From TrEMBL, chain A:
It comes from the Bacteria. PANTHER family: AMINO ACID IMPORT ATP-BINDING PROTEIN, PHOSPHONATES IMPORT ATP-BINDING PROTEIN PHNC. Keywords: ATP-binding, Cell membrane, Membrane, Nucleotide-binding, Translocase, Transport. PROSITE patterns: ABC_TRANSPORTER_1, ABC_TRANSPORTER_2. One of its GO terms (molecular function) is ATP binding. This is Phosphonate ABC transporter ATP-binding protein. InterPro entries: AAA+_ATPase, ABC_transporter-like_ATP-bd, ABC_transporter-like_CS, ABC_transpr_PhnC, MetN_ABC_transporter-like, P-loop_NTPase. Residues 2-249 form the ABC transporter domain. Gene3D superfamilies: P-loop containing nucleotide triphosphate hydrolases (3.40.50.300).
Amino acid sequence: MLELKNLTRRFGERAAVDGVTLAIPQGQMVGIIGRSGAGKSTLLRMVNRLTEPTSGQILHDGTDVTALRGRALRGWRTRCAMIFQQFNLIQRLDVLTNVLVGRLNHRPGPLATLNSLLLRFSAEERAMALDALDRFDLAEQALQRADTLSGGQQQRVAIARAMLQEPRLLLADEPIASLDPRNARVVMEALRDVNRRDGLTVLVNLHHLDTARRYCGRIIAMQAGRVVFDGPPDALTPERVEAIYGVPEEALEAETPQPSAA
Amino acid sequence: MSEFHPAALAAGLPRAGDYFARLLPDLRWATLLAGWETEGSIAFWFYRLDKWALLLVETANMAALATLGGGVVALLLSFLAARNAAPGPWSYRLARRGLEAMRTVPEIVYALILVWAFGVGPLAGIIAIALHTTGALGKLFAEAIENADMGPWDGVRAAGGSWAQACRFAMLPQVAPNMVSYLLLRFEINVRGASVIGFVGAGGIGQELYLVISQNYYEEISAIIVLIVVVVAMIDLLSEAVRRRLAGDARA
């Protein structure tokens, strides 16, 4: 169970996220929708503390995530994986090494850390990484440089990296906003697969309401940093959307999301 | 304030020209390729090539060691001195000011102090050049890091990677080609620096160059300068080849 209590983040005077309170049971697939600048990204980035909350609290199975520091914080980030709109792979490294980044915090001790800094990984870890790549049909690309892959492939590498963390949660920040429709579908299906088969809680920021309705069991709509809708996809009718945003659904979706906005 | 007088320039220019004219070797067509005992031959001009070659190798060695040593320290400090990668504002400020101080002091000043401490010889020269190199490269490295894309950094941090791991995985592969470029350029600069630093007794060809300048052995001055230019040109060709190979390299 992930709980957000009155979570707020201010950038100067403006509140990007304004007093959000949510409870998300383990294993849910939650779509977060809203316009660019509604605070979706900031909300997700606060959950794994890439962005620090100004006030409020994040709890996961009773642990106060907002109070974690140092090693404990890294432990939380390992349990709470994240994928990004721009994939955030290391372009000049090969795909396999990119996936192995997911194991970095699973190797305790200074010797293991030193080995990781020399890009040395054990045979078991490599096998794990290859398995993860194979699951997303990328085993053949394992030794290619990440920048030789298409966007859809890169996002699947990012999901494979996330899976190597053996997380309980997966945060996905606009994972398909930079992809064409076919690749978007492949990536969304991969997310649904890790949600159903591995029992991960998936929080995904989406721009398209249709996508959210098709893949998510629960939809949260945000507007100006606040949660304005929280319920099952059926309840989010086009009339409801127009009531919330003041424009019809088509007009909302015509706005393009800004790449990697805060 | 600056004592720039056109008259002094007019009077001095012919003298400078005269000095350069004296530097020119006395080469004659008839005996150009003759042995080292024949006046007017190239061999006569470079009659101490064996000694100078050894000194030049020592000079290049000093430069190489100083560049590598300074480069390694600069690499470690640059992550602390880059605004986007520094673990905290204090480390950023401290590392920045430290690097500044290190490169503000000219290497010849370091050399003077270190010759006094370690005695005459290349060791003082190597440390002197390495100190200055650390300051100069550290700043360039830090700026390369500041220009890097922060996406991979977020990726590694979000995977639970430590600061050092983020530096290694997210940053180094992006900036390594740039850093190697700067390192090779610095090597070239350091060869030049190492050939002057001998003036104060810190090893290399400089000691010999200082000797022939102070004793007005004009032809030997030009011979040594020609040799230094040749060595620097060779290093430039070499570093170009290295750069080209690294550009196609997948793992950095």
